[in-house]
Batch of 4 targets.
Target 1
Amino acid sequence: MKNFFIAGLAIWLLAYPVWAQETRPSFSITPAKAEFTVLPGETTIGRLEITNNLGRTIRFSIGLEDVTAGDGVTEPIKLLGDDLGLYSLKPYVVPSAYSLTIPNGDTQTLNFELKVPVSAPAGTRHGAITVTAAAAGTGGARANSQLASLIFLRIPGETAALGQVTGFGLLNGPIVLGDEPQFFATFANDGNVYLNPYGLIILEPMMALPGREIVVSPNFVLPGGQRIIEAGERTLNWRLAGWYRAELKLNRGYNNLLDDRQVTVLIIPWWLAILAVIFGLALIWWLVLKLIKR
């Protein structure tokens, strides 16, 4: 019996390999996304921090691009390059510089102005400040590295906010074996302003151990776009076991409107799965021994 347990545990652990962490030269920008509300006729200042860990002094180029909703539900946004978006941010943003030279290990701050004309219509504008690290000048052709910080600008006034949940389910299927349950909700934005839907998933026991609440963090959805919002931890399940009713309560991000969806799920923790395997092997062994004795 002990050997069966060790074998079962070894098989389970092999399914979850541990990868060695490797540190590579890189650079970073903070924040990855910023939201601003600016009244017509007013100006505000934003800041972007750039940290160089590429191993040498780098000249970074600063650019502006509009963004739009992606082509599919798994692609929330798409950078438009030189093209103007339907809700263009470019006319409203003025960076303090279009290039920065940063020594290795240093961090510098890029300021930028958000200017909203008096005549600007209400709504939201969506774009990104791009930061591009120049490639090394020797060693052949090398691609530039680029990061983007999303900038969302809201101009107060009368707008059309309209969105809804179009789907709800489990990423790991209706029977979850060994892992924590991972959920998804598909949200469509049919209005003309970006939305930040958020909420809770309530696991209510039907024939199960005590339930749980899972937070659905805010996720931006651009106008005309559709996005898959994921919730749940990618870890082994120790506690949840049995049949559950999973209820999604998602705030649409405006007027305190809630969407409610439900699914049922059977959750089997990893230790129960191992015990079932051990019991099954022991039963087979017992039957084999019984047949041999005959």
Note: Residues 45 and 113 are 5 Å apart (CA to CA).
Target 2
Amino acid sequence: MIRLDVSTSHSKVESNFVQLYEQYIRKDVGRTKILSNFKLKSSIAFNEALNSYDTNGFDHIGTGSYADVFRQQKQQGFIFKLIRLLPEYLLERIQIPALNRCTKYIDAFSEFQISSALSKLNNRITKDFPFSCQMFPIINQGYLTYGPLPDYFVLSPEEKSSQNSENIYSDYFLPIEQENMVIVMEDCGQPMRDVIDTAHPYVLLSIVKQIVIGFMIAETALEFEHRDLHSGNVLLQPCQQEFIIYQLHRKLIRVPSYGYRVKIIDTTFSRMRIKQKVYFTDLSHLFANFSDNMTELKMQDQCYEQMSRVVDQNWQNFYPKTNLIWIKYVIHKLLRCKALQVSHSGSGAGGGGGGGGGNRSQSTSKVKDVLNGLNRLMDKCTNSSSCFNAIIRDHSLNDCAKIIIN
């Protein structure tokens, strides 16, 4: 392990790092796969990659472990996810603060493959692929870019401070033409946490049932596990249709939208099988320091710990139970939202179908009971399909926001 920090002379850091970077970037297997997938001989400049998009006006809407996300301000714009990349050799052997916010090319390649496969579930079904689900973002394009961020992507000083991102954007960062994977996707709406406090209680049931159905289809079609479904990765997209419609083999499945379509984002940690190829990220290093006392962990960390026990270091294998662990987390958040903590008079919810309307206080009480029932169900089931079948059989769980099968 080579450790370089601010006490090391700046010129020595630059010289050593740049030499290694130029040596190993050409050998990186993940980078070769990305270039082949994007049909590129080499990475391209940001402006060249994005010249077909309107770049006037971007909002920085989020920072993840290895990425920044920007929203195009125009109506019905796009989301741009920028993933910071470095060769695997360097990330495993050199310690510099700035490198903590970068990821391997091979992990970014897996993320794009998984996101693209989920995107195709939005398309019309075929004889060979009888599945339809609109719960995952439509991916428009991917690019491998080099060089400094364009002005329209650079964070303001206030954003840098609030995001604690000085290690990413400061002048100390090494003078290389670092590469980024840019994923362009549809705008999937608002984070669930920004909507649920003022939503009608039936919206909350629709959210859970949409996730169960979407995961059931993705598990069946692609052996998919999300593995990181915290509340920031559950978005709600406005929906004018009364019902969300899915297809699983010859079954058409409908669930009331109540004005929102669930969109699940961020496949950074996800696992999937596409034909005979398995894509996954080894997450063993993330769980090395968890306490044995589960009560000391926050709910989100408890989910990671439970997931790691289910997987038991075999991150390549398929464990659909992990999706249910994360659905329990979503239910946990819904049960604690303000929409279920106070009573309101009035009736109705956005959209319709399946038991909307009625006294708000009665709806709140009923929804709490159903959410608690769904929460208990997650412990009993092994995958989303068994959970779905149990909901269909149990009138008490399917009376509100009723799932309909044709």
Note: The chain has 13 helices and 18 strands.
Target 3
Amino acid sequence: MASRRLVVLLLLLIAVGALAQPAKAPVVVSSGTDGAALWLPAGTNLAGETVAAAIHRRFTACWKGFFGTPATVADPLLVPRTSDLAEGVFGAMWADASAALDESARPAALHALRSLVLGDPTPLVDGLARAAGSPRLGEPMVQDALLYLFLSEAVSDPTLLPEALPPGSGGARLKGALERRGVPYSAFLRRYAAWILSRAMEARLIDTEPGTLPAVWALSENLPPGGWTSSAFDLPDAAAAVDLALAGDGQDLHVLTFLSDASGRVLWSGVGTLAESGGLPLVPGASRLWVVLWNAGRTDSGAGLALTLWGDPTPPFRIREGSLEEGTLDLLLEERAGILDYSLFNGPPAGGSADLLGLPSFPSRGAGVNRYRVALGPELGGVGALFLQCRTRSGGFYQAPLHLKEPEHP
């Protein structure tokens, strides 16, 4: 009996001693963001400290980029022990910061932050899959995490995001931010839809069996508001461009065109109304053309519409006459529909991205035969070989050399 009591006493002493031992202190690190401190689980090694600080910095930067103000997060931030330290830091920050958002705005913001802060591909892929499987584009996608990702990637004005996000009921905050910048909401939706579709194509989420050119694509039924349909065409090797011709009425329809390479990477995209659609240049490496018809109007539209597509090696304009005298360029052009404007280059234009003569572009006068007189100035009278480049309303570029007639002198 005495020995049993001795054993019990020893066990009690051991237990009391264990309780008296101080708990292991958390690992305290600074994120480097305004001196904010993180209390990490005891035993976190140096690599874990580095990861935790990086997640804190990225979350802070993304939140401020989205909403314009710092995230309201505890300092020091107590990070719970989890199987994934990065998830633990993110979860602790989100739990604090999300209280500043309306409940309806939280899912989209959460998924966008996970994508940008943690590098989680799921929000983007799931959003693209929803869009590719949806019968409607545009307005339904405004409340999606894709909007945050699109604005972060495609918009150069960083002040737009805090004014537009969260987009608000019916996209009211987004519309207001665009209106203050003079950007039509409809034009924004076109860009947003083109971005979604190009990403969905690259992710192979749009299942379309490609055809060949020439081809006629006809709609037997109307597309509802926001409705869309797509076709794909393998490109012939000899074609330098693709032409589109319209038959039928589709006043509210927009044409979204995409060129992809053999791996599926989108090399180029353009958006325009049917009336604006003209020739489409084929960029080097393009092997497939995607054409999307999208009803951006408020009523059903498109039944009976037919698009004819064919390969075309020629630009959508022809230079009938051209002369340069005393610093003035005189051009007589035969033009097809869909040309937006022209630029002049001294030598072949590189990618259509810069006017080497430093002259402003001049607008097209529309389909038909038109004369243009462009003042180059006396100092530019001897610039050498000139090239004329047109920009189509669907976003393409074509160029042709100017063979100028020598001026006649008495």
Note: The chain is about 30% helix and 25% strand.
Target 4
Amino acid sequence: MTGGELLLGQSLFDWLTAYGYFILPVIILLFGPVGGFVAGFLASLDVFNPFAVFGIWVITTTTVDSFLFALGKFGEHLLRKFKRSRKILEKITELENNSENTWVNVLKDHFVKIFFFLKISPTVAISDSLAIVAGVLDIKFSRLYTASFLGQIIWSAVFISFGYYLGGVIQDIKFLINTTGIILGLGFIITLLYIKFLHGYFMSKLSNIFLSIKDLFSKNSS
């Protein structure tokens, strides 16, 4: 009996190996990074193939970004049917036509870098909103897809690896000192260092844009 069968029980293990891949996209959409972490943990128990989990996560999230972009670009007639989204569209148009509005200009000029950073940050709501704004502002889809794809590769790999690492350690403490464990452990340390020393710096540099986007979608915005 494998470690996964022992920890999960035979029935649950068999069910997950048979049907788990079909519900993974839903779990990822509902729970985001937590879902990816759990999927990585289950991959260490041989429930999933970690590379399949990685591929499903990247495809799911980039598809969602593409849909939101298309909604902003081609769905104006639909969005204008709702009072709140109609006001947001009107405000975006006003800001775009205002040459003094620097955050819109910065967003257009540096969209790939900004969206890429958002994809490797715990800011799902902002990145989703920005994908819609990108469509409304007629930013090239290739720019959005490039940033979304590259950012999601990193984000997915980090959380799946953390889950896989934890699952490996739980099953066998020796996993801490084998080659895979050392590599994943170093990745974990690098990620913590990034969060502690660099993430706050980048957030402060882009804070004006983030606050502007939050204000744009705020319920109190007029």
Note: The radius of gyration is 20 Å.
